[in-house]
Amino acid sequence: MDPQSFIPRRTALAALVSAAVSGTLYALNNREPAPRFTATTLDGEKFTNDSVKGKVVLLQFWATWCQYCRRDQPAVDSIVHDFPDKLVVLAIDVGESKKKVKQYLEDTPRACKIVLTENTNLAAMYAAKAFPLYVVIDRDGNIAGTQRGAGGEGSLRQLLKKAGLELEPE
Questions:
Q1: Which helix (H) or strand (E) holds 158?
Q2: Could you give the CA distance from residue 131 to residue 144 in angstroms, rounded to a whole number?
Q3: Alpha-carbon distance 131 to 170, whole Å?
């Protein structure tokens, strides 16, 4: 068999693998319905798809040890304050103990709702393994966009714009 005949097959296989992997991200950015979720905050407040219908939801997957998550924390807190009645921000700490998270929050309080991995199915649904990971869900319960990695306040506001949420000009 001619060795040259393997090149198109390799190219085709690489394209298929790439399409399969990027297909997940494509679906997350094309107004697919958000998966059904439940989440209970450290304060005992419960959230589901139905309870947040009509509001924009920003999910932040984070960890106390993540320096990039810490860098984005003021941006997330600012956004929480700017949209108190239109936005629900759930910060899902992935893989850490309640004790560890509470200790962190004593030194570094957060303005958003804190959820532990054990109190939600969200981390598994979005395969959160690198932090921070942001997912924005629009008022109709569809995924409006995602962002992998820290990008600061401007980047988060652009993400929220995809769900139709932005500050009114003064």
A1: helix 152-161
A2: 19
A3: 34
Residue type, 170: E
The conformation of residue 1, written as its DSSP 8-state character, comes to -
Q: What is the DSSP letter of 55?
A: S
Is 11:93 a contact under the CB 8 Å cutoff?
no
3-state class of 120 per DSSP?
A: strand
Structure tokens at 46: 């419960």
C-alpha–C-alpha distance, residues 146 and 136, integer Å? 6
**Residues forming a β-bridge with 39:** 47, 120
Residue-wise pLDDT for 18-31, tens only, equals 433 344 444 445 67
The pLDDT tens digits of the residues spanning 84-125 come to 889 999 999 999 999 999 999 999 999 999 999 999 999 889
d(CA 102, CA 154): 28
| Residues 93, 62 contacting (CB under 8 angstroms) | yes
Residue among 30, 148, 6, 168 nearest 86 (CA) = 168
How far apart CA 119 and CA 26 sit, in angstroms, is: 28
C-alpha of 114 from chain center: 13
